[in-house]
Amino acid sequence: MSASPLRSLGVDPVTGKEALALVRPGGLLEALADAHALEACAVLVAVVGAVLEAGEASDAELAAFVPPLHAALDECVGVMVRNR
Q1: Helix 66-82 and helix 28-54: axis angle, to 10°?
Q2: Are 46 and 74 in contact (CB under 8 A)?
Q3: Taking 60 as the threshold, does the pLDDT of residue 1 lie above it?
Q4: How far is the C-alpha of 60 from the C-alpha of 33, rounded, in Å?
Q5: Which band of pLDDT confidence, cut at 50, 70 and 90, is reported for residue 5?
Q6: Integer Cα distance of 55 and 36 in angstroms
Q7: Model pLDDT for residues 34-51, shown as the tens digit of each residue
Q8: What is the spatial distance between Cα 22 and Cα 55, in angstroms, rounded to a whole number?
Q9: Fewer C-beta within 10 Å: the chain N or C terminus?
Q10: Minimal CA–CA distance to 61: which of 51, 72, 69, 46?
Q11: Dihedral Cα 57, 70, 37, 42, nearest 10 deg
Q12: pLDDT tens, 11-29?
């Protein structure tokens, strides 16, 4: 799991800037960061699923999904560990 102390709270739709926060375990910002991480993972799963279902992506296009999928999986595992 990543050791980054900063967690994403989302992206401002107006400016496109990502909001990052240092979160306290069990705090409100941690809950918001967890919710954002899980939502982002769900969107990524939907996109990758649609690409796989279409069956027309090249190996290079599919390989481009590996790093974001790994990061999303890493973050989801972190959320699960924290919420045990």
Answers
A1: 140
A2: no
A3: no
A4: 31
A5: confident
A6: 29
A7: 999 999 999 999 999 999
A8: 40
A9: C
A10: 51
A11: 30
A12: 999 999 999 999 998 999 9
Query: Which amino acid, residue 17?
Result: K
**pTM (2 d.p.):** 0.78
Nearest alpha carbon to residue 35 among 16, 70, 14, 7: 7
The yes-or-no verdict on residue 61 having pLDDT over 80 is yes
Cα–Cα distance measured from residue 47 to residue 37, given in angstroms and rounded to the nearest whole number: 15
DSSP 3-64: --SEEEEEE-TTT-PEEEEE--TTSHHHHHHHHHHHHHHHHHHHHHHHHHHHT---HHHHHT
The mean pLDDT value for 69-74 works out to 92
Q: Residues, the chain, total?
A: 84
Question: Could you give the 3-state DSSP secondary structure of residue 2?
Answer: coil
Q: Report the 10 Å Cβ neighbour count for 7.
A: 20
